[in-house]
From TrEMBL:
Keywords: Cell wall biogenesis/degradation, Hydrolase. It comes from Streptomyces capoamus. PANTHER family: N-ACETYLMURAMOYL-L-ALANINE AMIDASE AMID (PTHR30417:SF1). One of its GO terms (molecular function) is N-acetylmuramoyl-L-alanine amidase activity. It is an enzyme of class 3 (hydrolase). GO terms for biological process: cell wall organization; peptidoglycan catabolic process; peptidoglycan turnover. This is N-acetylmuramoyl-L-alanine amidase. Pfam families: Amidase_2. It catalyses: Hydrolyzes the link between N-acetylmuramoyl residues and L-amino acid residues in certain cell-wall glycopeptides.
Length: 232
């Protein structure tokens, strides 16, 4: 895995201005370990999930999904980790907030809440990331599933079909497609599951109005549309 060099890595010749970037200096050892002489800043941010067993680069405010807005969850609501080096990521867990976007963000910032997801998708399609995918978010109510999954909240209510807007489905499908691409997760109902399907949970989200056929169709279309090397 470490020796892989795709077209993207091969194209990375430097930072473009002749000087090594700050990030390149920080991860010089990691870059050498993967057998690539120099990784440009941008390339590195796209390839971090391929770096095994190292402390992956973390930059304040960085997101894993391009275009996501960053709002940090309380550190009490997740556990710092080094995924996928320490835990294999092979599930996406779909949640529904049972409330508005703002109140969901607020409770995820509350250390007393004890839970938070990696992402929230707003009804208008805006994506907010609260926890890095490197880390284990407390969202599934099951330790093993927390460790192996990325959790995505959706603004809305399980009993209100109108919660699930076209914009929400489309944005979430784009997000899930990139997560599946990053970790090689198959796009099927075994690997993309609802919170209600997590063993031991008493939660019912996303509920009967969540259109799984439509959602998986959108995720598959998004995966097909993307270039094989594009993972973010
Ligand atoms: Zn849930």
């Amino acid at each position: 895995m470490g020796a892989r060099t795709g077209p993207a890595a091969a194209a990375a010749g430097g930072d473009g201005d002749g000087r090594p970037g700050r990030r390149a200096l920080l991860v010089g050892a990691a870059a050498a370990a993967v057998g690539t002489a120099v990784l440009a800043r941008e390339e590195l941010s796209r390839l971090w999930w391929r770096l095994p067993g190292v402390d992956k680069p973390r930059v304040a405010g960085a997101v894993d999904f391009r275009g996501a807005r960053w709002v940090a969850a309380s550190a009490a609501n997740y556990r710092r980790a080094d995924r996928p080096a320490d835990y294999r990521v092979d599930r996406v867990v779909v949640h529904v907030t049972q409330g508005g976007y703002a109140s969901a963000v607020k409770v995820f910032q509350d250390p007393a809440h004890g839970a938070a997801a990696h992402y929230i998708v707003r009804a208008d399609g805006r994506v907010t990331q609260l926890i890095r995918e490197l880390d284990v978010a407390f969202h599934a109510g099951n330790r093993e599933y927390n460790e192996r999954s990325v959790g995505i909240e959706h603004e809305g209510f399980v009993d209100d079909a109108s919660s699930f807007t076209d914009a929400l489905y489309a944005a979430s499908a784009r997000l899930t497609a990139t997560v599946c691409g990053r970790y090689g997760i198959p796009v099927d109902r075994e690997h993309i599951i609802g919170h209600a399907e997590v063993p031991g949970t008493d939660h019912t989200d996303p509920g009967r109005f969540w259109d799984w056929d439509r959602y998986l169709g959108l995720v598959r279309a998004e995966r097909a549309r993307r270039a094989p090397n594009e993972r973010s």
